[in-house]
Amino acid sequence: MLLVEGESGVGKSRLLAEAVEAAAGLGFVLARGTADESTQLAPLKPLMSAFGESTQTLLGSRGITPADMRLRLVDELQDRLENRAADGPHLVTLDDLQWADPMTLLALRSLIPELASYPLVWILSRTIGSGGSGLDRLYEVLERDGATRLMLEALGDQAVAEVITDMLDAAPDSELLALAAGAGGNPFLLMEWLEGLRDEGAIEISDGHARLVSRRLPRRVQEIVRRHCEGLSSPTRHLLQVAAILGRCFDANDLADMLGEPPSRLLPALEEAEAARFVVPAGDQLAFRHDLLWRAVAETVTASMRQALHRQAAQMLLERGGSAIPAAAHLMRSMRPGDTAALEGLDRAVGEVLPSSPQTAADLAVRALDLTAPSAPGRFDRTVTAVYALAAAGRLAQAAELARTALSQTTLPEQTSQLRYVLAYVLMLAGRPEEAVAQARSALSQPDLSGELRGLTEQVLFQGLFASRDRRRGRERAQTIVAAAERHDPPARVGAHILLAGVGWAEGRAADAIGHLREAVRIASGGPIQAQHAHPRLLLANALTSMRQLGEAEAVIQAVDQEITALGHTAYAASPAICRARLRLASGRLDDAAAEAEAGLAMADQLGMHAFDFLGLAVLAIVAACRGDIETAARHAELYRSRRQAGQGELYGRVWCEWGMALVTEARAGPDKAIDVISDTIAIATERQWLLMTEPGAAGWLTRTLLAAGDRSAAETIVVTAERLAEDNPDFPTLAASAGHARGILHRDLAALARAAATHVGPWTRASAAEDLGVLHAHAPGGSGHDAAIHSLDQALQDYQRTGALRDAARVRARLRKLGIRRRHWRQPERPVSGWDSLTDTERNVATLVAQGLTNPQVATQMFISPHTVKFHLRQVFRKLDVGSRVELARLAADQTSDL
Q1: What's residue 871's pLDDT?
Q2: Going by DSSP bridges, is the β-strand pair 203-206/171-172 parallel, antiparallel, or unpaired?
Q3: Are 290 and 17 in contact (CB under 8 A)?
Q4: Where does the record place the HTH luxR-type domain (predicted)?
């Protein structure tokens, strides 16, 4: 990855052209794309043009087009690039990214790191000082990921002298060099100035030296262009001015229509413009030779005339039919309030672009709304569209503010109810369930609410009550809907079962809760898209993870991942990876848990949807604490706390996250501080019960930590609660193991701890129980438990080391040393730190499949893991084998096979 930047005219495009020429000589496949101001509303235009694709061809073979195509488009592009890379190395150059649309930036941010192991070279170029924060963020992320960032600086004195010598075939004298400094080292300005002086005979060349005949300082490019234009015929000047309105690249047919002439009559003027080096061929279009040249020509047109010409261009494109997106770029520069025809054109463009680039759609929709009179008939519909577009773009605060403003401006009951539903939906996405519940209740209080809108609003209400832990308030309503299911729409029924699942979980009835979630999944799967947007599978996966039904939880997460992509519900796009991270943590696979959490958080950052961030941050903090990296754990914990204090909400998982923060605090500051973090949770019966249902490791950890903090009474409460949950849920052995673990610690019960150490699911909780058992044996009177203590502690050490819980392993080694036993730091037997033999079994499997030519998604399918995990292991493989590409890996793998 090479990230090129510099001011306009400094030579960025020339550098890319030289790279293309060099790559062509080396046999690279070339893909070249350029962003352009006139097409920056068209999603993925630079990438599509580079690879000869279109959004229609990308999605044409996949059936129904989702409401939000971003995930599908990126997935399809990645598939195409992976297949292309099999044909040999590629060079991808993308120029002028300051004009790139948001979808292009999103795709690049995802594609480049995901495809880092393929023979793809990327060179991106932008003009500094433009492009916005999205492009700045892309460069920062890619640089952090390993890209080389190259700032093209102004030419130095020596380079300026060399340019002059090359152009004039003569060495400049000191006076010519002094005046050339006025170009500021900008190659384009310098060359334009030199050409102007040479054309005017202002330079004399004698005996291989160049000197000035007349003293004329370098002019700004606008002055250069104006002077050049004076030498053109009037028709050619007018043609160039109109062409500049169409964009740096323009179509000859568009130009002819704007000028009201047949294309044949433009030939003389176009030939003159080409001869004067204003325009050059660009594929099937024409283009101004340089960005600065184009801008300078456009600025020769007065502001009022530019606006009129943009309006003419928009009208021409709209009347032609087809896509409204090209016209929208001109409408944004020419519209006036109340222009009905122009507003209808923007409405069309919003509808076209919303599925593939909500950010662009949001900008267009807000602009259309700004130009719509408060009393205009289309204002309400434009408001709702703008709110949805802003929400899809991740601009949730702006979406909520717009909905609230519209609510204050309408008195019509139907509009009020719909706006309250829309606002409740946005607030749920923003992780503010209490506010969402308030808006949904207000909407439902309207007697004339339509059946469809009522069902959607009830679904949001129940989701909000579930997430805000205010489940009892809606219990009766949910029971009524479930009892009379035939009278209610699927979204309402899905929401009702979700709420009743929350009630069952809060009351300690795991089977009942999981049953309601299964029914919600069944109804959603056969219902309309709106019913599926509640994604009850996510809640089911989390419940199964809590009950340590890990195999089924994995399958459910895979299903919801596919569902979210198929529906285009990008608001939830990060959630499967983050739920999988918690599942991996429960399985004791710390590396995989971290890989999934990082992938989920990165996706949330890309899409601007952060409602699931807290679960991801908690996983990363717990993983770091288990590894003994307390500094990193503290950093994640601090980020978690700062976001909560800043009012960034969350949809699910608060209680479990608080336990994670307490666990990290115990590692940093001891048991007293840890209990302070989680004291509110364990003091409230429903919260305490929820935690012990959700995390099997919490009961033993809390009991031990409370005793260390001197609070035996609270520890007894934990044990009583855990034992009641185990008794009430005999079908879930993990609760029995959890209760036995807590009881064994509190009552020093060897048998209970032994059963917990044998029956806990997951190596970390099993190791924790074995460690507690070993400690208890070690304190047996007269040293009678010495051998048993060593045996249990060795079991704990083995499990801790297998998961990578280095801090816990170190503590157990210290306990063994007190018993006179020294255990070395664990290493895989005879495993070196580099080379093929250094690979773990998982890494070797990944390496073998990749060497066979499988893509990351194909490897993931073969190994029943996620592509995020494949990418993590592949990075480890590359590091250990000291290779940088799949080709090198394939060679190494072939060598290994031949040696067998």
Answers
A1: 82
A2: unpaired
A3: no
A4: 832-897
